[in-house]
Amino acid sequence: MSSTPHFLQGVFAFTGSGLSKPVPIDPTLTYVVPPGMTVQPLYFRGGNSSDELVHVTLMRDGKPMRMFPMGARSAVNVPLRVVEDVDPDSVLELVLAAPEGCAGEVVIDFGMVII
């Protein structure tokens, strides 16, 4: 069985609405698992240009799957040690939460494999 890598990537501007109020970052950061396939998220790399703590959350069908906090003006590299299969037709989406009024840019590189 072969696998295909897939990435959700880019640099995105944001304005926070509260750390407990995650919002979609960009439509390009949503992925629907194709019928008959499964996906395994493998890693998350991210950077935060703002002066505040922010977090990106990987959502699966509207529910949090993984959270990736990023400190002020810093970056993270998180290889996922616990790899789960994500079922066909599931919707994966990266959302961001930041303190209300906090503005900046976030750099995202999220890697997964389609099996």
List the helices and strands and how they pair.
Layout: E1 4-15, E2 23-24, E3 30-32, E4 39-48, E5 54-60, E6 63-70, E7 74-79, E8 91-97, E9 103-114
Antiparallel strand pairs: 1-9, 2-8, 3-8, 4-7, 4-9, 5-6, 5-8
Notes on the protein architecture:
The structure is a single chain. The strands form two sheets. Strands 2, 3, 5, 6 and 8 form a five-stranded antiparallel sheet that branches. This protein has a four-stranded antiparallel sheet with strand order 1-9-4-7, with no helix packed on it. The protein starts with a strand and ends with a strand. The model has no long low-confidence stretch (mean pLDDT 97). Strand 5 (54-60) and strand 6 (63-70) form a beta hairpin. It has 115 residues and is mostly beta strands. It is 0% helix and 58% strand.
At a glance:
The protein is an all-beta fold and 115 residues long. Helices cover 0% and strands 58% of the residues. The model has no long low-confidence stretch (mean pLDDT 97).
The residue fraction in helices comes out at under 10%
Report the count of strand segments. Answer: 9
Mean pLDDT score: 97
Dominant shape: elongated
Beta-strand portion reads over 45%
Helix/strand order? EEEEEEEEE
Low-confidence stretches: none
Distance between the termini: 7 Å
Tally of helical runs: 0
- Helix and strand content put the structural class at mainly beta
